[in-house]
Amino acid sequence: MRVTLRRLAESISSRPFNVREASASLYPPVPLYRRLLRAHRYLPHEMRSLGDVYVKAEFHRHKQVTNPVHIMGFLTQWKMYLDELPNGPDGRSFTGKKLDPTVFEKMSNEQLGQLYEFMHATKELWKPVPEEDKS
After folding, report:
1. Does the N terminus or the C terminus of the chain have fewer Cβ atoms within 10 A?
2. Secondary structure (3-state) at 11
3. Alpha helix (H) ranges present in the chain?
4. Is 62 helix (H, G, I), strand (E, B) or coil?
5. Is the per-residue pLDDT at 9 higher than 80?
6. pLDDT (tens digit per residue) in 82-123
7. How many other C-beta atoms can be found within 10 angstroms of the C-beta atom of residue 39?
8. What DSSP character marks residue 1?
């Protein structure tokens, strides 16, 4: 395997990647997709609409992928995202989190470009409300 492929296949979490543990905690693609869309129900409307469109597009793009390593990475990352979402109307609120610097370093130029575009597309949605407009 080439060095770049090996680097991309490395685990991005702080602990070593265990295939048995990951496959035991992963959902098959269709149930995971459904759980993600259900979990989005508890997000604010703007976040839900953006999240639903993104989830649908990503799963559609990866429908024809046959590389097992890529599939495991894809499902693992979406499962980690699902675990971060609120799980009910009385659940915790979703605040997001900062991007891990090691993940940022492993991104390709195309991925960095997509992240930059995403940042600018969402910047308008999440402008802080001035204090006098809150009442």
Report:
1. C
2. coil
3. 3-9, 19-25, 29-39, 45-61, 68-84, 101-106, 109-123
4. coil
5. no
6. 988 877 666 566 666 788 889 889 999 999 999 898 888 777
7. 22
8. -
